[in-house]
Design brief:
The complex is a heterodimer of chains A (515) and B (349). Chain A has 515 residues and is an alpha/beta fold. In chain A, 33% of the residues lie in helices and 23% in strands. Chain A has 18 helices and 22 strands. The longest helix of chain A is centred in the middle third of the chain and has 16 residues. Chain A starts with 11 loop residues before the first strand and ends with a helix. With 349 residues, chain B is mainly α. Chain B has a domain of 219 residues. Chain B contains 13 helices and 2 strands. A two-stranded antiparallel ribbon of chain B has the order 1-2. In chain B, helix 8 packs across helix 10 and helix 12 runs antiparallel to helix 13. The N and C termini of chain B lie close together (6 Å). Classes of the chains: A alpha/beta (515), B mainly alpha (349). The interface between A and B is medium-sized, with 34 and 22 residues.
Amino acid sequence: MAPDSMAQGPVLRLDGITKRFGALVANDAISVTLAPGEVIALLGENGAGKTTLMNILFGHYTADAGTVEVFGQTLPQGNPRAALAAGVGMVHQHFTLADNLSVLENVVLGTQPLWGARLDMAGARAKLVGLAQDFGLAVDPDARLGSLSVGERQRVEILKALYRDARILILDEPTAVLTPQQADALFAALRKMVAQGLSIIFISHKLHEVMAIASRVVVLRHGKQVGEVAVSDTDPRALAEMMVGSAITQPELRAATPGPALLELRKVVTPDRGTTRGLRGVDLALRAGTITGLAGVSGNGQAALADLIAGLERPSAGEMLLHGAAPAQWSVAEALGAGIARIPEDRHKTGTIADFSLTENAILERYNQAPFARRGWLDWRAARDFAQSVIRAYDVRCPGPDTRIRLLSGGNMQKLILGRVMELRPQIILANQPVRGLDIGAITFVQTQLLAARDRGAAVLLISEDLDEILALSDQIHVISEGRLSPPFARGTMSATDLGRWMAGEGFERGRDAA
Amino acid sequence: MRLEVIARPSLGRLIGFPAIALALTVVFGSSLALLAGANPFQTLGLILRGAAGSQFALLETLNRATPLIFTGLAVAVAFRAKLWNIGAEAQLYAGALMAVLLGTGALGWPSALLLPAMAGAAMLAGALVLLGPALLKTRLGVDEVVTTLLFNFIMLLFISMLLEGPLKDPMGMGWPQSSRLIPDARLPRIVDGLRLHWGFALALIAAILVWVIQSRTTLGYEMRAVGQNRQAAEFAGIPVGRVILKTALLSGGLAALAGFSEVAGLRGNLSLDLSPGFGYTGIIVAMLALLNPIGVVISAIFVAGVFVGADSMSRAAGVPTYIANIMLATALLTMVLAIALTRYRLRWD
């Protein structure tokens, strides 16, 4: 199927796609067209219906109404092979690659006939190398996937789609795992593909990226298509307001009044755990009345640092000081006893117990302390009162304290976690990805709470993969890369690009010498 | 096709689907009776009458339910914390062994002291039997399904060895069985002249205690938290390993009470046919009860009723008692499905 023969009509046409889940309308008559050589961005908050729409395109769901046309032909509903065969390729946010195979094997996997006598590896290799050169996606075909970095894995994932002769590429939040520089490299590769006539759908909620790569933007909100604009006719602020449906108010930022260091790490080392990178000699000081931002590509030791402060991990070397003194023991109980508020990265798996009620979840960290327990007996009335007060004070939208927490949205779940720890007016706050996946209203609420805690003198460690969030909230910023920590950078001294260089590991030797 | 969670299931759903499951079980059991050449209605009638048609039948059912309540509670407690104790059979025999060791004359205490001592020793033995696999699980990550299951065979062979050797009743005419308990070591009947013994009352008390532990104590909260989401429990500072060990002690102790109650309440001695798989049937009982301790009492009585009723039906109608096993298996499968359907809706799309 030569692309130029199709140059007239759109390569992809989604027409009036409607999908309901019970009372929820996930997609309400969405219509999108994609021209050859065009990049469009699909923009929307979590739950806006982007993933549902792509699942319908790929035949994982069947639409209640509407049709999918690829190169002028209607795709049969509910057939995942049809979209692939028609030349649509998807690069998932979470890679679907096998760690123990080589790059070439990963790319070939699933394309060869099951009962074939032998694999045509030489031909496959030539094709893969050719594609890699054409698009500037350099990878070693014989490298084992497990040894590759996240950026390289993403290249493999893209090459996998191209190897299957995809003419339409769908990228789901592709920059979430990349440094700004890696993202730029990705964009360069995407532009080469577009120049060769491929078409791209770019799913994101990062506005400046959308502005940089796309020519048109389709905005979804609560399942509805609320806008479609050319990038040249809009700006990030207008897009954001279209995405959210209202004017956006930034949390108010007052000048910081730094106090003494409440938590200090000196040359702290923690062991690697499986795929979790440990810390390699980290120096960190969390001062009263400040927010310390931790930037970095995910998987570079953020989890180890968070586990350490949360009490789940102990330093194998180096020193940890709490209020100036080294704790004799270190465990979750000690961390809680020291008044550390912990907002975990994964609110579903770590922060809450899905089938427990709001009441049961509210007392999760203090179930065996007064007033919730006496001599091993639980006081459900005290627990319920506490849950009620958190629900009221933190605006947790729910039917009541006896509701199972799995029925709550992510934002309301996060508000309960926030309330559970903030009610104690903690002095040290560990906020690990506190707003990931939340809608703008909840994001503002959580950020306002963190800023309020800082203003009353708490020391906050904010771990995030979103540089904009780090830059907006932090009084000082560290970058973490391969378990090492950069020196602190004061507010306003670093741009996203500067941080990106540190995120890629540059500057660490220099930084070490300077320190 | 996928499942959709129902936030608030209607009463009709909550009653309707289990009722359909029960009906399916009855229909399936009846068709088997038909295949065996019997009148299905008569067969069902006989089962019902055999299980609950007279005072004698009803008390027989409750007697049979007693060990099942204990093993059902043992399984429910363990499964709630995601400790897969398949070894209630071994723990039951450990309890029975202690009852015999202390109750055949070794201790000349009065009943009021001797029975609690026997029960306590039984619980301790059962707890220790499960402690091993639990330690292997928490320390080394050994799968407790394998270890507890295999322990059943070790325990049976061990008991067999004892019954052929040191514990063999010298008056037993060569049968592999222990001496009989002294009268003070026997659990009395609840009402004079009726066969139901105090073991049943003990089982009810145990069920209530387990319910109180699970819903009102920090230990119960810990056990449920560890079972529902181990990662979150760890993050919250719950000592997961210790909670699993405590759960194992409680579960093993409860299963051992089944052995104590059978020996001291019903049999009066120990032999290898003490339990026709009460430990395994306890799993069915607990699953049917959705691991709810009060539900265990009800489902144990139901399961016991099917067994007792089928026994009596078999004698009268000549249909093999295997029908009881098949009916229970059907009941379990359909009931598990029905219970899922009270909470989830099937969506075809």
